[in-house]
Q: What sequence folds into this?
């Protein structure tokens, strides 16, 4: 009987640890979901400020980055660092991306409408 009782206690302890609530992995990009009043996101420190800007400035509402967002209104930005250099010669990738943000209507990717709002004003 003692062995049976010991086995039951052992199984209950194992079950207790197996059903414990593990610490959830925080979502990427410094956004932590909360459901206090309704679905909302609280900004937490993010290791990559560019990813944080992508969400806080609304880019994710129109553009896709694989594994991050799935919008299709604007061009896919998953491989923008390599694709950008091919979009508008003789601009470098950095120059093209900067122009696309500062003056979105100057060059519109084929197959897309010129819908990107003016989000950035450069003070030169």
A:
């Amino acid at each position: 009987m003692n062995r049976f009782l010991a086995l039951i206690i052992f199984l209950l302890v194992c079950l207790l640890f197996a059903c414990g609530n593990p610490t959830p992995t925080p979502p990427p990009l410094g956004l932590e979901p909360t459901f206090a009043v309704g679905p909302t996101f609280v900004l937490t420190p993010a290791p990559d400020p560019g990813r944080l800007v992508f969400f806080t400035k609304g880019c994710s509402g129109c553009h896709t980055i694989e594994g991050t967002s799935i919008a299709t209104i604007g061009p896919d930005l998953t491989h923008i660092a390599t694709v950008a250099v091919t979009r508008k010669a003789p601009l470098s990738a950095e120059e093209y991306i900067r122009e696309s943000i500062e003056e979105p209507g100057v060059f519109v990717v084929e197959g897309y409408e010129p819908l990107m709002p003016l989000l950035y004003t450069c003070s030169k």
